[in-house]
Amino acid sequence: MSIYSDLELDCQPFPHCIFRNFISSQAFAENLKKELLELNFHEKSNDLYKLKQCARFCTTVCRAALFGRFRSWLGEVLGVELEPTVDISCAKYEYTDVLLCHDDELEGRRVAFILYLVPPWQSSDGGTLDLYTTDSNLQPQSIVKPLVPSWNTLVLFEVSPVSFHQVSEVLSQDKCRLSLSGWFHGPSLERPPRHTVAPVQRNPHLPRDETVLLEWINPIYLDISYQEQIQENFEDSSEIQLKGFLKEEKFKEVSEALRLSQIEWKKRGPPNKRRYEAAALDSLPQCVSACWELLHSEAFFLLLSNFTGLRLHYLCPADDEENGDEEKDKKQQDDGEATGSSNEPSSADVSREKEPSTPLCCGEVRRWSHGGYTLLHDGEAARAEYALDLVLPFGCAGWQSEFGGFTCYVANEEDEELLTVYPEDNSLALVYRDKETLKFVKHVNHKSTSEPDGSSTCREFYDFSFVYYE
Q1: What are the beta bridge partners of residue 387?
Q2: How many Cα atoms occupy the beta-carbon half-sphere of 468 within 13 Å?
Q3: How far is the CA of 79 from the CAs of 67, 70, 82, 106, 186, in angstroms?
Q4: CB distance 453 to 386 below 8 Å
Q5: Cα–Cα distance measured from residue 184 to residue 177, given in angstroms and rounded to the nearest whole number
Q6: Alpha-carbon span 7 to 74, nearest angstrom
Q7: Membrane spanning segments where (predicted)?
Q8: How does pLDDT run across 315-357, given as a tens digit for each residue?
Q9: Over 60: is that where the pLDDT of 3 sits?
């Protein structure tokens, strides 16, 4: 690292530069801040961030004043020709606003910049620019350099496969983290193939009969006529929430057991994809393990088939299309007998026949607390497929939607939310998604740690999260 008065250069964990007192005229900087705060900001929120932003404000004169000559100088330093176009936007981060771990890589982005116009700021206020180390697979590991925003300071860094960073959650309730940020464009650095992770192992059902359902599940959900109503509702909307799903005594027993210290909770990452804790299955108390086996059991697969109409068990009835195919095959057979033609299946018929697939599932027991989230990412979109999601939450009493921790379903490459599922005690959520539908869990923010009187608390909840495949 090199420091020259108001200039700091450092190559760890990736090349970045800090210019203090970037704007020479304090009057200009103050007037710029005043004008920016008078702009019309729009709240933006998705899996990656929550903030207020104004994207179109900076005139050509403003851009030239801030970055005209500077862009030329920067290009000379890097030894590349930067394009005249500079992407720039203004952002306000206030209490609980955040920008989670990402690398900024997009075609044409070469250098990222942030100009801070903030009041006196401490690390305890949050809103730091956190720089991550990366592992041998170029995946982010841990924060090694948090940069505290300061007035009239410009931070630059080279956009690369390892430039993982985040804006930590703003914890101050009375300060505004105002900044101008964007990118200088030029030839992108070469990127190695993205690291791919093997899919989570899927397993067939466990051999358990209906006794396990009678032991665990609210009797109303075992009534055949009620299951038919559930299936009708599910087929209309592809989702349903079944409240009071487990017997009350079973739900209470599991809720208490999930808080026991014997459970080994393992952090799930990397931070550009997820951050939460999952239980080691061999450390689960007996009743929690039994609940896990319930959701994995053959009897439960059949119950899900009855709830949804999906082919999750060989005993579930064939759908109308299959019945129609059977009638069509019978008619073709009758026609063949009448005309004397062969009843042997053609090669085309044989090619259309499919071996029945074995329904599979995968799942985990998760713990959610302040800072937990999951993100959408390219690998997930590429592997998206038809699936039934199940979530069964525990310990949600007092949990509010403004804390985060809810599951959002979105269409691939679109921001619009299709469905939001909020955690609710003993409410089984079932959602069927297609290949164009992705999901994420919204960042659990600092409000989850505060009581109405301002005192601190430690809220957390748990859930069983399973995915079933036909």
Answers
A1: 433
A2: 28
A3: 17, 14, 9, 20, 11
A4: no
A5: 22
A6: 14
A7: none
A8: 776 655 444 444 444 444 444 444 344 444 443 343 334 456 7
A9: no
Q: Are 126 and 172 within 8 A, CB to CB?
A: yes
Residue 465 β-bridge partners: 364, 391
pTM value is 0.89
Name the residue type at position 256: E
| Cα–Cα distance measured from residue 80 to residue 422, given in angstroms and rounded to the nearest whole number | 49
Cβ atoms < 10 Å from Cβ of 137: 11
Bridge partners, residue 390, by sequence: 430, 466
Q: pLDDT tens digits, residue range 407-419?
A: 999 998 777 789 9
Q: In what order do the strands lie in the sheet with 437-441?
A: 417-421, 407-411, 437-441
Q: How far apart are CA 326 and CA 250, in angstroms?
A: 44
Find out whether 177 and 306 touch, Cβ atoms under 8 Å. no
Distance of alpha carbon 56 from alpha carbon 42, whole angstroms = 11
3-state secondary structure of 276: strand
DSSP state letter for 75: H
Q: Are 134 and 140 in contact (CB under 8 A)?
A: yes
Which among 443, 371, 363 has a CA at the least distance from the CA of 406? Answer: 443
pLDDT of residue 189: 85
Q: How many residues does the chain have?
A: 470
| Closest among 11, 45, 264, 258 to 144, alpha carbons compared | 11
- The whole-angstrom separation of Cα 5 and Cα 261 is 51
**Closest Cα partner for 231 from 297, 310, 300?**
310
> Residue 469's beta-bridge partner residues?
360
Per-residue CA distances from 389 to 368, 373, 429 (Å): 18, 17, 8
Percentage of the chain lying above the pLDDT 90 cut: 72
Q: How far is CA 109 from CA 56, 159, 442, in A?
A: 19, 7, 27
Angle between helices 248-257 and 286-296 (to 10 degrees): 120
**Alpha-carbon distances of 396 from 87, 287, 338, 349, 408, rounded to whole Å:** 42, 19, 66, 53, 17
For residues 263-285, average pLDDT: 97
Tokens 């994207």 label which residue? 55
Residue 391: name the closest of 378, 409, 376, 403 by CA: 409
**443 neighbors 372 (Cβ within 8 angstroms):** yes
Q: Which residues lie closer than 8 Å to 178 by C-beta, 6 or more apart?
A: 33, 36, 37, 90, 91, 92, 116, 117, 118
| DSSP letter string, 295-352 | HHBHHHHHHHHHHH----STTSPP-HHHHHHHHHHHHHHHHHHHHT---SPPHHHHHH
Q: How many helices (H) and strands (E) does the chain have?
A: 10, 24
